[in-house]
Fold:
Amino acid sequence: MEAFVREKSKSTPWIKLDPGENHLEIRGESYPENSANFYAPMMEWLENYLENLSDESVRVDIELIYFNSSSSKVFMNFFDMLEDCAGKGVDVVVNWFYHPDNDTALECGEEFQEDMEKVTFNLVQTDGG
Amino acid sequence: MMDEIQYFYEKLKKEGVIFSFSGPVSQSLLEGIGATLRQKMSLEETSTGVIQKVFSIFVELMQNVINYSAERGSAGAEEPDLSFGVLIIGRRGDHFYIQCGNYITDSQKGPLREQLTRLQSMDKDELKKYYKEQRRKEAAEGSKGAGLGFIEMARRATYPIEFDILQNGNGKDFFVVNILI
Structure:
């Protein structure tokens, strides 16, 4: 399986989903015109990838400075898929990075964290600089 | 006509308007204005939290116009529709305000009024709960977004969202919102 990579744009984040390292990374901002369309290829890739995991560990690093409400729906589905996968016994760790001045990013992370039972969901403060 | 431009400009400035836009709205326009808006607010040493709130409401409002304005024009078969609306961002004392307006269809009127009236009565905890509930629901048929935009805006705003649906001579309804941060 090949890595899934998208360069960042003004309204979409940098995405790198690396099956070799079992490392998923999303960084930037997310407010595309049509979030469901934009993320459809990524979600399809993720579904295939998670299906084939068994006793591995997956690390997920997410740093979103801002995302709009329709992206929020996509990320909820993204975390639900990870939660299902963790339910099968896969070790899934999510690191949600937020800048100390960015209350909204922290709050959004907390709201995703509340819904996770099997996934280890860490809120990680980045450097203040 | 020519001398009215300066009058118009000074009037907007006097009212604390940072940005005003009227016409066709697109995603690339949103990205451009959004970047400048952030730059302008950070030059004025607005806190990161407030910049994020204003930006968030700005994006949701502009994308609402793009997706739902009833005033549309086709730019050709290959191009997406153009959607029209008006948007004003300004500062009054310690608050930022964003006002946005666009024409709506008859069928949009009832659901909009119902949803916004409901949001006005909710406090922050209720809004959070409602947001999480709605996020779990399948998107309504024909909806281009996730149906979460106004709940998101109500959560970021300092005061409940004010809105009105104005009937004018041409028989079309004009929808306006005013949000204070």
